[in-house]
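Lecture 7 notes: from sequence to structure.

We start with a single chain of 378 residues. Read the sequence below before looking at the structure.
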Amino acid sequence: MANVKRHEDPTSASNMDFYSPVHYHLDLTCDFQAKRLRGSVEVTLSKAKGAALCSNVILDSQDIEVHKVEAQGPVALPFEIRPFRKYGSALHIELTDDVQKLSQLKLSISFTAGTGAALCWLDPIQTAGKKMPYLYTQGQPVLNRSFFPCMDSPSVKSTWSASIKVPEGFNVVMSASHWESPKQSAGYLECSFDMDVAIPIYLVAMAVGDISSKEIGPRSRVWTEPCLLDKAQYEFQEVTEQFLSAGEHLFGPYVWTRYDILVMPPSFPYGGMENPCLTFVTPTLLVGDRSLVDVIMHEISHSWFGNLVTNASWSEFWLNEGLTMYAQRRICTEILGLSFTCLEAATGKALLMKDIDHFGEVCMAHQQAVDVVKFWTV
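Now the structure, written as C-alpha cells:
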C-alpha cells in the first residue's frame, strides 16, 4: 500500500488511490410517513492501474444505516462504519481474497437514509401549494454521502442510473440525461433515470412532490408545483434557449441532452443549484418581467465550468464559480451587449467590496484581499 500515492482530498475518507467509481445504480423507495429512503446502491469500481491488492473498499457515508453488503456472486462481505473527521463516517468493506483480485468489482449495499443533511424533507406548509409534502436533495459540497454511500469527492467522476418508487400522487425528477416513462407498481409510481455523462457525485440530485411541467424551449421544460407552473413558464420561455445557444457558440457543444429547470418550494434556501440537466432555482425569480433570469444564465454556464470541468478538491472551488462567472459575462455580452455586462460587473464589484468591508477584519489579510480585488478589476 505504501507505494501508491493517495489523492489528497481531506474531505473524503474513500480509498480513491486503489479504486475509482465507474457507475452507481440506485434502487430506492421514498417513504414520506417515516421520512426515509430505503433500498440499495450498486457501486461498480475499477481498480487503479498498478495498484497492489487492497483488502478493503472505503466509501463515504453519513447518517446512513447500512444493512448488508454483497459482492457479485453474491458474496456477503463484512463491513464497519468508522468515524471520519467532521465530514461524516467511513464505510469500510472487507474484501475476500477472490474479490481483491478482480480488476472491476460490483458491490451491492442495502441501506436506509433519511436524517442526513442531503435529504430535505418539507411539510406541506413549507411548499407553495400547501397540500403535499416534498423531498429534495442537496449534494454540494460533501452532503451526498448522507444520500447514499459513495466516493464523495469532486476529483472522481462516474455515470449513474436510478429506479425510484414514490407514492401514487407524487412525481419524481432527477438530474439525469435520460428519463423513462413512469410505471404504476402496487400503489407506487416507479421512475427510471440514467446519466450517461460522468459527473462528480455531488451533482446527483432528486426531488419528489406535487410536480408538473411545461415546455419552455426545444430542449427544455420547467418543472414546479402546479400553482406556480404558468408563472414559471412565462419567466423562462424563449430566454433559456437563447442562453444555451450563446453558450454553445462560445464554449462548444452542450453535452447534457436537455436543460430543464425545477422551480423549488419557497423554503429552498439557495438562488440556484447547477444540477446537470435539471437546475434547481428559487421561486423568487418569478417576478413577471424576466429581470432576474441572469441566474439561469449563470447556472447554464456551469454546464461547461463546474459540471463538465470540475475543481479537483473543495479548496479549489473558486475555479468552478470564477470560470462560471466569466462564462456568464461572456453570454451576457453576446445577448445583451457590452454596456449591460459592464454595469452588471460594476454592481457585482461594489457588492463584493461591501462584503469584504462588512465581514473582513481590519488587518493585513483584509487589506491584501482588497488590494487583490482592486488589481484584478482595474
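The chain has a mean pLDDT of 92. Keep this in mind for problem set 3.
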